[in-house]
Amino acid sequence: MKKLETALTQQVLAALYETTAPISGEDLAEKLAVSRTAIWKAIGKLRSSGYKIDAAPNRGYQLVCGVDIPYPQEVQRGLETQNFGHNAYFYQHLVSTNDTLRTLAKEGASEGTLVIAEQQQQGRGRWGRAWQSEAGENLTFSLLLRPHFEPRKVTVLAPMVGVACLKVLRAEPYGLPVNLKWPNDLLVNGKKLGGILIELSLELERIHYAVLGLGINVNANFAQVDFPATSLKILSGQTLPRVPLLQKLLLALEEEYQELINSGSGSLLSTYRQWCETVGQEIAVYSRGELVAQGTAQEIDPDFNLVVATAQGPVTVTSAEVSLRGS
Ligand code: BTN
């Protein structure tokens, strides 16, 4: 019953989007072959989800404005991907989108499945740090991949996601000078605009799945945070819609992934090298709290590892093992 009601609500919404003129409850009921009471209930649900719907006596219902909430129906309207985001779940609250997607992955969810949340109770970042994001302000989502390449090549995923995000954020309408802190923090002038947390299920022979978790600061104001952070709103001086940004990110992620599968990592590597601002910096690299290398970040090697020139000679560090702090 619940599923049928949800489907009807989506059909009513689609019918309202289709027309610019008001449409009567009677016409909607006839079009969708349901009762007027069912239409009335569906309109109520849409309104409580944030849609502004006028109801003029004798004329009918009219959608005054949609919502900028990343509901699947909003994300999927005009989405240009072939697959990413076509199977999508939205939650007002959950613990972490990565956890929910992992559960779906274990149940057999397909590649490209998307989980979006308005608010995470325990959103997490790399190295057990918390990821905080106020409801309704930003984008917090996870995307499922089922890559067929060898597990040792999995380190390519973090740069791939970082580069996909930068392709969107550096282009119009955003046009921001975003760079990557190795392996994949999104930074503008040293302040964090977004973060990526990739969690894997793999065995020696194959990757079962990869959960790509992304948090992008869109409309956060950050009045009080104890770390250098920024948002698209702070950088551009205006509130920006989240749904088109998510659509662009999904398309860029799909294109970058397809390129990787079809042509290998050559072009990704050269773009990554261009946009990774860590090279040339004095850094300290830690693994589980222990200092493992200190010196000048020298280069990104072909496996996307960071080579650090230390007093004892070059040290190669992989993103799977370390966290990085500016010295
Ligand atoms: C970091 O910079 O340390 C990574 C932050 C990743 C945050 C995102 S928000 C969506 C997804 N769910 C989580 O719990 N974390 C990631």
Descriptive labels:
327 residues; alpha+beta; seven-stranded mixed β-sheet; five-stranded antiparallel β-sheet; binds biotin
Summarize this entry quickly.
The protein is α+β, with helices and mostly antiparallel strands.
Structural class: alpha+beta
Gyration radius, rounded: 22 Å
User: Shape from CA axes?
Assistant: elongated
Helix run count:
9
Strand order of the main beta sheet, please?
A: 3-4-5-9-8-7-6
Bound molecules: biotin
Overall mean pLDDT: 92
Instruction: Please provide the ordered H/E string of secondary-structure elements.
Output: HHHEEHEHEEHEEEEHHHEEEEE
Euclidean distance between termini CA atoms: 59 Å
* Beta-strand content: 25-35%
Helix content: 25-40%
Based on DSSP secondary structure assignment, what is the total number of beta strands?
Answer: 14
The biggest sheet amounts to: 7 strands, mixed
Low-confidence stretches: none
How would the blueprint of this fold be written?
Layout: H1 2-18, H2 25-32, H3 36-48, E1 52-56, E2 60-65, H4 72-76, E3 88-94, H5 97-106, E4 114-120, E5 139-145, H6 157-170, E6 179-181, E7 185-188, E8 191-202, E9 207-216, H7 232-236, H8 242-263, H9 266-275, E10 282-287, E11 290-300, E12 306-310, E13 313-317, E14 323-326
Parallel strand pairs: 3-4
Antiparallel strand pairs: 1-2, 4-5, 5-9, 6-7, 7-8, 8-9, 10-11, 10-14, 11-12, 12-13
Helix pairs in contact: 1-3, 2-3, 6-8, 6-9
The structure holds biotin.
